[in-house]
Specification:
Blueprint (H helix, E strand, L loop, with lengths): L9 H4 L4 H7 L7 H5 L1 H8 L5 H30 L2 H8 L4 H14 L1
Length: 109
């Protein structure tokens, strides 16, 4: 009997958290001990049918795409910042604001 070799899912697993893995597959896939230990969880994954690795690969790809999109959006947002916005972000607290805060602190004590 020739078995079809399962794809190597080690690269897929590197970008998935334990929660990602547990959430992607039916809750009955893992025992409670396997759900608490990454090594046991992965050991079980290598014994699953052909469908589960495919599901995990799709979850990993989706997660990777979301991360890439978030990074791209943040880079674009920073690139759009005007010099004024950047200056305001890096601006120190005004002397008036310091005095007001100092007075509030003194009143409390």
């Amino acid at each position: 009997m020739n078995m079809i070799p399962l794809p190597d899912i080690s690269s897929t697993l590197t970008c998935l958290t334990m929660n990602d893995i547990k959430d992607a597959l039916p809750s009955s896939t893992f025992t409670s001990a396997e759900k608490r230990c990454r090594a046991k969880l992965e050991e079980t994954l290598y014994q699953l049918s052909e469908e589960e690795p495919t599901i995990l690969e799709n979850v990993a790809l989706t997660k990777k795409r979301k991360t890439e999109i978030m990074i791209r959006e943040e880079v674009e947002r920073v690139a759009r910042m005007t010099a004024t916005e950047e200056d305001m972000f890096l601006q120190t607290v005004s002397e008036e604001c310091r005095k007001t805060l100092s007075l509030k602190v003194q009143r409390r004590h």
